[in-house]
Amino acid sequence: MTLAIMWFMELFPPYYSDWLASPLPSLSQQQKYWLFRPGALTAGLRRLGDVQLRVVSEHAQGLHPAEAWMLKRKPRSPVWLREIVMSINGTGSVFARSFTPLTASHGLWQGMRRLRTRPLADMLYHNPQITRSDFFACRLSDQHPLYRSAQRLLGRQCPPARCLLARCSVFWRHGQPLLVAECFLPEFWPLAAKSAYDRGLRLKEL
Ligand SMILES: C=C(O[C@@H]1C=C(C(=O)O)C=C[C@H]1O)C(=O)O
């Protein structure tokens, strides 16, 4: 990447970002529902079946330039990253990638390092000091950091980027951000549709 492009990306981040604050018009009602559903995603997934969480990786790395604006931190500044996959009744359904500044992972967000297979949700929704940003959603592209992670995780079984819908939001605690990005794998959508059908719900009641 040339210096000029990197300079542009750092200066005008939202203009090259894939993330959108409102749903793409082409999405189904069900997709819009899950991409912008408030509250704990794990709680929503548990209504579809038995949820298992597998930690894929946890390590320090530099903040990706395309994600720096979300964290309001400088590109390449050190962050602590956690990547997990959640399965519903044994079917890999959601891949999540979460990160916080490395200093915060030793401070206000240190709980993130101790979770192991407990979901992040356990430490996010019962603390009045923690606020959540609006959601952003997108269809992934080949260059998207979340897609790069999905490729590492799924290898040759990774679906094309355009088949993957994702959302993200930032949790803030005393000025310290924790970004959570979640990608719905293609196998998730039939499970969600079947569950809604079994419960006799119309889409708007999901
Ligand atoms: C943030 C939540 O926790 C889920 C669990 C995660 C984890 O343990 O790393 C990451 C993203 C979420 O889908 C949630 O359920 O809303």
TrEMBL record:
Substrate binds at R82, L120, E182. Pathway: Cofactor biosynthesis; ubiquinone biosynthesis. The keyword Lyase applies. Keywords: Cytoplasm, Lyase, Pyruvate, Ubiquinone biosynthesis. GO terms for molecular function: chorismate lyase activity. GO terms for cellular component: cytosol. Its EC number is 4.1.3.40. It is found in: Cytoplasm. GO terms for biological process: pyruvate biosynthetic process; ubiquinone biosynthetic process. InterPro entries: Chorismate--pyruvate_lyase, Chorismate_lyase_/UTRA_dom_sf. It catalyses: chorismate = 4-hydroxybenzoate + pyruvate. Pfam families: Chor_lyase. Removes the pyruvyl group from chorismate, with concomitant aromatization of the ring, to provide 4-hydroxybenzoate (4HB) for the ubiquinone pathway. Belongs to the UbiC family. This is Probable chorismate pyruvate-lyase. It comes from Pollutimonas bauzanensis. The lineage of its organism: Bacteria, Pseudomonadati, Pseudomonadota, Betaproteobacteria, Burkholderiales. The gene is ubiC.
